[in-house]
Amino acid sequence: MKKFITTGIIVVILVFIAYMSFVYFVTFSEGYRSGELIKISKRGVIFKTWEGRLSQGVSEEQQFNFSVESSDKEVLEKLKEYQGSRVKLTYIERYGTFFWMGDTKHYVKEVERVGKDESLEN
Question: In Å, how far from its chain's centre is CA 7?
Answer without folding.
Answer: 36
